Amino acid sequence: MNTAKEILFNLIEEIPENEISEVIDFIGYLKLKREKELYKDLQKASESSLDFWNNDIDDEVWSDV
Questions:
Q1: Measured over all CA atoms, what is the biggest interatomic distance in the chain, rounded to whole angstroms?
Q2: What separation, in Å, do the N-terminal and C-terminal C-alpha atoms of the chain show?
Q3: Residues 35-64: pLDDT tens digits?
């Protein structure tokens, strides 16, 4: 197992039960933050693709379809 994960598991074992919910909340926050960054990357890729196809030549060619 990864050393960092071992350290984390050991720290979790030492935390009082009433503080575990804060750890869970923080891990959820980190997960959400990572998902937002992935979404932003996907959005940027989509926008650059849209810029490629959004032009007068393609508008004219595909206008009758």
A1: 68
A2: 57
A3: 999 999 888 888 877 777 778 887 787 877
DSSP string for residues in 15-56: S-GGGHHHHHHHHHHHHHHHHHHHHHHHHHHHHHHHHHH-SH
> Which two structure tokens, joined as six digits, stand for 5?
């994960």
Q: Give CA–CA dist 23/39, Å, rounded.
A: 24
10-42 pLDDT, tens digit per residue, is: 999 999 999 999 999 999 999 999 999 999 988
Residue 31's identity, in one-letter code, is K
Asked whether 30 and 38 are in contact (CB, 8 A), the reply is: no
Instruction: Assess contact for 10 and 1: CB atoms under 8 A.
Output: no
- What kind and span of H or E run contains 57? helix 56-62
